[in-house]
Amino acid sequence: MCGGAAYDATVTRYVVVGAGSVGGVIAGRLGQYGVDVLMVARGSNAEALRSRGLTVRDPDGTTTVEVPVVTAAAEARLTTDDVLVFVTKTHQLAEALLQWVDQPVHDAAGEVIGTAGELLPVLTALNGVEAERLALRFFRQVYGVCVWLPAMRTEPGEVVLQIGPVSGVFIVGRYGAGGRDVLETVKADWEQATFHVHVVDDVMGWKHRKLLANLGNAVQALLGADADDDLHRQARDEARRVYDAAGITIPSSAEEKAWRGDHFDLRPVAGLDREIGGSSWQSLDRGSGDIETDYLNGEIVRLARAIGLEAPINEGLQRLARQAATDRRAPGSFTVDDVRALIAHR
């Protein structure tokens, strides 16, 4: 194994680690539009993908595409033309990084010339702002991705996307020192597949801005898809005060609106007769027993504590969401009065 410089080959394959809603839409659209992609999935989802293909349902119709699938990192046989795209939840990321970092990477002649951690670019398409720090411990080339993509995996092998014809908007940038040439290839490949991609210098500013929106994930999970927006507003206002005290600046609402455009007018999807919420709502809906809000509301709590402040609203939402996941409570199990009382009684 060598510890040499990062590769400079043209990207030809995206290895999507995480086959949930976002990962499913990314892999499905890339495969649909002829971009080389490999999905990493497990259990019944992997079985469905292999036997029936990947189905993406959106407001304009339904598409099923055959996408190669592996169930473990060792099956992927990585080459210097690969990019790893992590789309797990943040609390699942450390385990995934360890599974991939030491995988051998082959050159065009089939010789092993290094490891994934040494040679391959990594895209971290996750909510929150912790994923990039985690990834940089293991991988030399880390590129943060701010994701706007409203989707849900409704059953194994199928995802529902609530917008179209644009399938999602991504803001991407290098995390840490180094160039970003690979992102121009990512932009070209992903825009071919109906995504909008914006390459920026300060991706973390955008991820901090997106975090403000994701503070409402806990509210929605606890109260249901039609959540009390005032609780989210209070959590967001509290986070902004913490940002200001910590010296964190974020892009403006006007900048976000300019890039998101009018692509996020949610529309009905034919045949979908059930409620759909965000990622934390989906965790409770599946009864997974865990939830990502420790890295959303919990990030505001961590930041506040680090500078000698408190963030009681986000701390309360973090605690309640974690308890709801541990107890395997369904989304929407709490009333507004329940949540407010439990936050106050801490």
Secondary structure elements and pairings:
Blueprint: E1 13-17, H1 21-32, E2 37-40, H2 43-52, E3 54-58, E4 61-65, E5 69-70, E6 78-79, E7 82-86, H3 90-100, E8 104-106, E9 112-115, H4 116-119, E10 121-124, H5 131-136, E11 141-148, E12 151-155, E13 158-161, E14 168-175, H6 181-192, E15 195-199, H7 203-214, H8 216-223, H9 229-246, H10 253-260, H11 279-286, H12 297-306, H13 312-326, H14 336-344
Helix pairs in contact: 8-11, 8-13, 9-12, 12-13, 13-14
Plain-language structure description:
The protein has 346 residues and is an alpha/beta fold. The protein has 2 domains: 7-201, Rossmann fold (3-Layer(aba) Sandwich), CATH 3.40.50; 204-346, Orthogonal Bundle (N-(1-d-carboxylethyl)-l-norvaline Dehydrogenase, domain 2), CATH 1.10.1040. 41% of the residues lie in helices and 20% in strands. It contains 14 helices and 15 strands. The protein has an 8-stranded mixed sheet with strand order 5-2-1-7-10-11-14-15. It has a 4-stranded mixed sheet with strand order 4-3-13-12. Strand 12 and strand 13 form a beta hairpin. Helix 8 crosses helix 13 (312-326). The radius of gyration is 20 Å and the shape is globular.
Would you summarize the structure shown here?
The protein has 346 residues and is α/β, with parallel strands linked by helices.
CATH architecture of the largest domain: 3-Layer(aba) Sandwich
Total helices: the number is: 14
**How confident overall, as mean pLDDT?**
92
Integer tally of domains: 2
The CATH class designation of the largest domain is Alpha Beta
Radius of gyration: 20 Å
Q: Biggest sheet, strands in spatial order?
A: 5-2-1-7-10-11-14-15
- Quote the CATH topology of the largest domain: Rossmann fold
Q: Can you tell me the residue ranges where pLDDT is under 50 for at least 5 consecutive residues?
A: 1-9
Distance between the termini: 53 Å
The assigned structural class equals: alpha/beta
Task: Name the CATH superfamily assignment of the largest domain.
Answer: NAD(P)-binding Rossmann-like Domain
Helix-strand pattern: EHEHEEEEEHEEHEHEEEEHEHHHHHHHH
Morphology: globular
Biggest sheet layout? 8 strands, mixed
